[in-house]
Amino acid sequence: MTTNTLLLLLLSLLIASGLSFFHYIYKAKNKSKVGWFLAFLRFLSIFGILLLLINPIVTKNTLETVKTPLPIVVDNSSSISFLNANEKVLELYKKIQSNSDLQEKFDVQSYQFSDDFEPTEAFDFKGTQTNIDVVAKNLKSIYKNTTYPTVLITDGNQTSGNDYVYSFDSVNKVYPVIVGDTTTFLDFKINQLNVNKYAFHKNKFPIEAFLQYLGTKSVTADFVISQGNSVFSRQSITFSPSKKTATVNILLPADKIGLQIFKATILSKEKEKNTYNNTKNFAVEVIDQKTNIAIVSAINHPDLGALKRAIESNVQRKVTIVKPNEIKLLQDYNVLILYQPTTEFKTIFENNKAAGINTFIITGNNTDFNFLNQQQDNLNFKMSGQKEDYLSFFNEQFNLFATDNIGFENLPPLQNAFGTITAKGAVSVLLSSKIRTIDTNAPLLAFAENQGKRAAYLLGENSWKWRLQTHVNNQSFEKYDVFIDKIIQFLASNNSKKSLVVEHESFYNSGEAIEITAQFFNKNYEFDEKARLTIAVTNTKTKQTKNYDLLKGNNSYKVNLDGLKAGSYAFTVKELNSKTTYSSSFEILDFDIEKQFVNPDVEKLTQLATQTQGKVFFPDQVDVLIKTFLENEEYKAIEKNIITKTPLIDWIWLLVLISILLATEWFVRKYNGLL
Q: Which residues cross the membrane (predicted)?
């Protein structure tokens, strides 16, 4: 408390005493005990009010010692136990963490990581992935603007995330403690297997395998592709100390329709420490046939090439660009894209009334809108001869199928004739149009379905600019191509509307995310946000069933099924209110990425230590590591003077006390007839 505050308190005592004495003692005619009591009450009230105004603060200085943080980060992935290093890791951790000298000098804190990062002092070594990059990101966040060393106990074999060597802050030293047997063993490994998820019946599909060898002598191994007891391919490959990798390309026949599971294996007479990484299972879904799409146009335009490339980015699609008079049989195609129809398209429209093929009509400056009004009943066009640029606006409520906003509002405008476009029936609008900043209340991309026949309308040309702009924005055509593919998928299917739509893969690799999404629609085919969806997943071998709830997202319901073991599963999604169900199956392939290694990655961890000016240690050097920290003068505890200021009084209780004193004074005066 300052001298000024003390003087003010003393002055307050004098003022309160003087006023109380003057009012009840000096001016009083009869000096009774009641007068002295009232003077005392008035003194306390006035002093309390002055105390509130002064609000005296008590300042306290304390010295606090701040130690340098020392995070001990332990690899909790299953590769540690697979390399038989889990007991050694626990021993190392306890020895470092419990060292009293380290605890005196540092603020020792324990963490574990696998696919995620969290503080803990207990480890089970059951993580399904190793992500060392997540360690760097979390430490930067936790110890922001702090200089500290890090002890990283790991084998260094990362299976997910970015390259960790340059992820760590270079000003904070990292000291990797490398666990696992560093002795080089002879080992064959399928490093990577590239194969498409889909193949077409009676075609051949390619397989690309990258094989790796660790050893000091020349050996020969067989690379075999099999399915059950049938062997589809066998190749002999020679490895040597100078040739430690090999790439194998194979074409396999797609003879059976449906999900086909294969096994790739390296076979050798040599004895290996780890044979788990000699085998990889993979699956291919063989599809009966392609979707054939005809783009019909009487003119040449860049839109045609952009649409063809976007559609054929899905290997299930085949696109043919033809002129109106070149189509002989409409039944050869699953979808017709009619680009800027004119009277030349009359025969196609007439023949399609019988064929019933779904259409995607795209208009532009060369479209004959009077002819188009005669040939379809979904939209009515009243157009002028003037050209206009139309910007797009995404409709978040669109629910015919799930699609994302790829940034339509920022894409270049499409050009079409100026006029009025009105819907004649039930039309679902995905994109509406704007002229500069003015809403036209007219569709730009719309869909209709009448008596099982589906149609889509894109009302403007130059959509090739959309594909180009998405590549500029994302360095990839993928977002635009997926958007177009979903339109084609809608048109390629003549299925009637379903109230429950479920999306899932036919197979997954064990250890990767297994997510199933669903949409439920009411009778008006509007997304139902109050639906209650559950899923029952049954292992077809053990017959064990697990039940989960699907959680609502922005425009769908989702469930994450991570943790299921390899095998075949059947599942049923059920909407509890309507009892609507959807049943299907998927396969989880046996592949544990954490069992692919026989040695720690000494080279990578050494590179990390060098990058951060730290040093690599091995388990038998843990005492040297501790000594290094204790002798390092760079990390010293800092004493901080902590100043805390607290009010001498609690103003709320003081106000209550003042109120009680004033009320008591009033009642005493009233009782004694002094009012």
A: 6-25, 37-58, 651-668
Q: Are residues 193 and 240 in the same domain?
A: yes
Indicate if the alpha-carbon torsion angle 660, 661, 666, 668 is positive or negative: positive
Contact status, residue 96 vs residue 630, Cβ threshold 8 Å: no
Domain total for the chain? 5
pLDDT at 445: 95
Containing structural domain, residue 192? 187-287
| Best CA proximity match to 174, nearest among 608, 602, 632, 633 | 608
Q: Does the residue 94 lie in any domain?
A: no
Q: Residue 120 half-sphere exposure, CB side, CA atoms within 13 Å?
A: 14
Residue of 91 and 452 predicted with greater confidence: 91
Confidence at residue 37, expressed as pLDDT on a 0 to 100 scale: 80
- Using the structure block, give the residue that is written with the tokens 């007219």: 442
**How far apart are alpha carbons 155 and 372 in whole angstroms?**
68
Burial class (CB in 10 A: 0-12, 13-18, 19+), 499: middle
Question: What does the pLDDT read at residue 641?
Answer: 67
Q: What is the pTM of this model?
A: 0.52
Amino acid identity of 540? T
Residue 496 has pLDDT above 70, yes or no: no
Residue 98 covered by a domain: no
State the residue for tokens 């939209």.
379
Q: How far is CA 314 from CA 38, 358, 673, in A?
A: 95, 19, 100
**What distance in Å separates the CA atoms of residue 655 and residue 386, rounded to the nearest whole number?**
78
- Over residues 72-122, the pLDDT tens digits come to 999 998 888 888 888 999 999 999 999 999 998 899 999 999 888 999 988
Are 554 and 537 contacting, i.e. CB atoms less than 8 angstroms apart?
no
C-alpha distances (whole Å) from 639 to each of 60, 65, 398, 642 are 16, 4, 62, 9
